[in-house]
Design a protein that fits this description.
The N and C termini lie far apart (about 75 Å). A hairpin with a 6-residue loop joins strand 2 and strand 3. The protein has one domain: TIM Barrel, CATH 3.20.20. The chain is of the alpha/beta class.
Length: about 270
């Protein structure tokens, strides 16, 4: 069993790999995280209390946002959306949290809980939330979801395909490893109704026991693939590799001085 779990984390396709994390991962050793084969990270910004309707910031958001920006060029933030609470309030709070932060991926709406709201009303509230983000940040957000939730709780609204999809479908589930799965529905199963393509694929999460390997306090960590290479990811995120600075004149002059000194010493030895 342990060998199967480890294989998930070590199995590499051609996709760029991204980790996502929140308060549930506890303290993070970013030096360890930086040593892993990651091309970027996604950080939870916050959510809203499903009973009181009070929005809140993930208590690890500030440190995770700051440290992630120091270590990774590709960085994104997500909001855990509650369907039974005010969508405009959630959009405003989320945007206020991240608008002055450094991020290169579009903001992400984590859609995986209906809170008892029927599909028709849920779709209306979700669109209000997504429109609120776009109006405030001038960028269309990404939708995170899974087929087992989306298809029955949301359905197939025509507008959904206008948003990039981050799809959860685990390559390891209930003791079964699916090594031939090259996308979240490459086996023609568990496809969200609204999309024919995906941007991000969360392929491993609870139960993978890879948290410590990635510098987390927690046993587990969410791992994702970007639908493309690291170069493709950088282009999508509009990240440009910084060119190496040219040698300074001062270094060249020092080199000349040292060479001349060595030459004079050598002349003295040979004479």
């Amino acid at each position: 069993m342990a060998n199967l779990i480890n294989l998930i984390g070590d199995k590499m396709l051609d996709y760029a790999k991204i980790a996502d994390f929140s308060k549930w991962q506890g303290d993070i050793d970013y030096d360890v995280l930086d040593d892993q084969d990651l091309s970027g990270v996604i950080v939870r910004a916050g959510s809203i209390n499903y009973l009181t309707g009070v929005p809140y910031t993930d208590f690890k958001f500030e440190i995770n946002a700051t440290k992630s920006a120091e270590y990774f060029k590709v960085l994104g933030f997500y909001w855990y959306w509650r369907a039974n609470q005010d969508p405009n309030l959630q959009a405003k709070y989320f945007c206020d949290l991240i608008k002055y932060k450094e991020w290169s991926l579009p903001p992400i709406a984590d859609i995986e809980s209906s809170n008892g709201i029927p599909p028709n009303l849920l779709r209306s509230r979700l669109k209000t939330f997504l429109d609120g983000i776009e109006a405030r940040l001038n960028v269309k957000p990404i939708i995170y979801t899974r087929a087992s939730f989306w298809n029955y709780a949301v359905g197939n609204p025509k507008w959904a395909s206008n948003y990039h999809l981050w799809c959860a479908r685990y390559r390891y589930l209930d003791g079964n490893l699916e090594p031939d799965l090259t996308g979240p529905w490459s086996d023609n199963k568990f496809k969200p109704l609204s999309w024919n393509d995906w941007l991000l694929w969360q392929y491993s999460a609870d139960g993978n026991r890879l948290g410590h390997k990635y510098g987390m306090d927690s046993f587990d960590i969410d791992l994702n693939y970007f639908n493309g290479t690291e170069e493709d990811l950088y282009k999508f995120a509009e990240v440009i590799e910084e060119p190496q600075p040219p040698p300074t004149t001062e270094k060249v002059e020092i080199s000349k001085t040292l060479a001349l000194s060595l030459y004079e010493e050598l002349k003295g030895v040979l004479q």
